[in-house]
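Chapter summary example.
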Amino acid sequence: MGAMTEAASQPQPQRAPLRVAIGGFGAIGSAVARRLDAGIEDLRLTAVSARDREKAKARMAGFSVRVPVVPLGELAAAADVVLECAPAAVFLEVARPTLEAGRIFMPLSVGSLLSHPELVELARAHGARILVPTGALIGLDAVRAAAEGVIRSARMVTRKPPRGLEGAPYLVERGISLDGLNGPLKVFDGSAREGARGFPANVNVAAALSLAGIGPDETRLEIWADPGLSRNVHRIEVEADSARFSMEIENVPSEENPRTGRITALSAIAALRALVSPLKVGT
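The structure predicted for these 283 residues follows.
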């Protein structure tokens, strides 16, 4: 007993910090990088990737440790976890090498997962994991729990200031202009899959909701441009055999990128912290 007590009292060896690389160094990526650089126990920033390498290096001014700026395909070699917050057009350049290397892939361009379901099988084949942060939404824990039973319907209504929807492919293809809008305008009503395709920079939240619940074809989505808003508003309504619930969140837009909310970067930080924390609250 004495020997066992003595052994138990010995200090346990410290584990190496989880290495984190960030693909995309804009508003979200740089915010997460700053928090990691400031210090989160058992997490360490090891690399970033950006289209403009010089701009990325400038963003790291004031960092305690400046990490290398590498091509997207080389992030996995420098990390245990790769956080993707890049434009949807380069999603696969981050995703495939990360999964093939057997790493944890944490995507924020969740809508791109709907177009590439084969990535789940790629992760399985290489022992990798795809972990989707909650992002700018609310209540995904409740949706995931309800999905263990039967969800009869899931609907999301997104309302944004017009400038937060500018440039969306769906609007451009249909010649829909939001200039001079003087009242709320519904610009989309369809499935989450269709919405993610037409608004790739705007409704990753709808993609996350669909993946947590009844899928992208059954999850319904409305998108409104509302000049009376200064915040991005998301409301979800779920009808299930276990519960009926509705939730709404008003996100403060990022100063640098009005298409996304400030809380998105904080959600990514919380998801990273959960990987190493001895206590995790939530499903």
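To summarize the output: The beta strands are 18-23, 43-49, 81-84, 104-107, 129-130, 151-160, 185-191, 220-225, 232-240, 244-251.
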